[in-house]
């Protein structure tokens, strides 16, 4: 007989698998609807990182100007937002993903046709920083080969927080520094390294400006390579 926790978890996972196909259908419908509008250039952005590292807050502040005070684990969520890049109107389709291991089989549904990926970690959680290279980079490289990656440090406002320093000191740890973040970005070959705080709004717009530019450049280069291949075949 299952224990209550395991029974609840089993029911949750069964429900998730049951609705995975429905989710994928909704995603495809959303993409078709988005691409039907010719006045926009549409680009797909996927955000990954450990659970509770601030991915959802970052997306909600950018797309809705709303900072959620309560943490609710995300399974999958999509947002659509417009942004001006070099005088051009870009429609970003934003994919929020689950960072928990329970959802690692469903997360790949978000990856097809991605134009840019944000790998996030929280400056107050060194474990989430370590997992950038150990967990998220291998997954992104596997499912999004050749797609530009931006490394994003979230919750930058907590770097100077006394409570955070005290809690980390108890584990003989410190907040992740800017220098460490830049070194990690170089190590993983990230297109850029950025820091932001969804709570204070600091750096949020810059994250998506840089992401949109990287996505546009990636699309152009991809089309150029495809055109060259066609010319060679001819």
UniProtKB/TrEMBL annotation:
The keyword Cell cycle does not apply. Keywords: Cell membrane, GTP-binding, Lipoprotein, Membrane, Methylation, Nucleotide-binding, Prenylation. InterPro entries: P-loop_NTPase (IPR027417), Small_GTP-bd (IPR005225), Small_GTPase (IPR001806), Small_GTPase_Rho (IPR003578). Its main location: membrane. The keyword Lipoprotein applies. One of its GO terms (cellular component) is plasma membrane. One of its GO terms (molecular function) is GTP binding. GO terms for biological process: actin cytoskeleton organization; small GTPase-mediated signal transduction. It holds the Pfam family Ras. It comes from the Eukaryota. It is found in: Cell membrane. PANTHER family: RHO FAMILY GTPASE (PTHR24072). This is Uncharacterized protein.
